[in-house]
Design brief:
This protein has 173 residues and is α+β, with helices and mostly antiparallel strands. It is built from 4 helices and 6 strands. Strands 1, 2, 3, 4, 5 and 6 form a 6-stranded antiparallel beta sheet that branches. Helix 1 (2-21) packs across helix 2. The longest helix is centred in the last third of the chain and has 22 residues, at 112-133.
């Protein structure tokens, strides 16, 4: 019974955050909020921890960008992609001061409205600008050409860049 209450609180938090992002073009389904733009997909995925217990649910928020041109065929099922499909991956915690990662906790005493407001503020101020800034293939290529590849190995970064360059006749955009 407690676990059901905790899960319901997480669903309420995600729903509340989703409503605040709706006007920006995000839509939600389950643990995922997505925005589709310019043939790419921005993802906010709420991930439950395996360290959760029946009395305490731990979760984090993953951010991702899926480059539609790298899907096979291009753009295929973009609206169903998940963080595992993302070509750029970060956690919300990396944007917080002195935090390489951040996990939130929901217990029976957690006020979901307070938690939703906290997360909404962080997501709107930190995650959304990051995602929107990388929703064009040009921005993705520029990031990768700078040598950065959040969530990828350097080999993956180089392979994806080569694929995009080949696809566009040596013009990576």
């Amino acid at each position: 019974m407690v676990q059901h209450l905790i899960n319901e609180k997480l669903e309420n938090v995600i729903r509340s955050v989703g409503l605040k992002l709706k006007d920006l073009g995000f839509s939600g389904r389950g643990l995922i909020l997505r925005i589709l733009k310019d043939g790419n997909c921005g993802i906010l995925e709420f991930q439950r921890s395996t360290k959760s217990s029946p009395d305490s649910l731990l979760f984090t928020v993953n951010l991702g960008i899926v480059c539609g041109a790298l899907l096979d065929p291009p753009g295929e099922q973009l609206e169903k992609t998940r963080i595992i499909d993302a070509h750029i991956r970060q956690r919300l915690g990396v944007f917080l001061p002195d935090r390489p990662d951040k996990w939130w906790e929901i217990t029976p005493l957690t006020n979901p409205e307070v938690l939703a407001n906290e997360l909404s503020e962080l997501i709107l101020n930190l995650a959304v600008p990051y995602i929107l800034g990388l929703l064009s293939t040009v921005a993705i290529v520029s990031l990768w050409e700078s040598g950065k590849c959040p969530g990828l190995t350097d080999g993956q970064r180089l392979r994806f860049l080569a694929h995009l360059q080949k696809r566009n006749g040596n013009a990576a955009t």
